[in-house]
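Priority: low. Protein: DUF5675 domain-containing protein. Input follows.
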Amino acid sequence: MKLVLERQYHVSGTNGTLYFEDKEICKTIELAWKNNQRRISCIPEGLYRVKKRFSPKFKWHLEVRNVKNRDLILFHPANNALKELNGCIAPVSELTGEGKGIRSRIAFERLKNILFPYLEKGFVINLTIKKSTT
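Result:
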């Protein structure tokens, strides 16, 4: 199954649109691109696997696997990339600036409600991250 994140890169953060099977789910925010440096950069463009994961801090969420030189890259709620993210991806309902959005928890719940049933049935979900062409 195909999850696609199309990004727009900015100085203060990275904004994106997330699609599942060619249908838009939500917008996303991330840190700016800083050569894949741990905790201060978004991850590189490429193909990754998405898994369901639990932690005491974020409860049930999604993990992006097999990121070169990085680990624990998660999809979790946040509305300000610089203040709340360490390299992870935050779904948001609406973009409000570079690396900023609103109603992240609503977008995150939507993302989980769409993906979790497939993951629980054993489907493989691959995430392609690429630069937006628009």
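The chain has one domain: 2-131. The helical segments are 81-84, 104-120.
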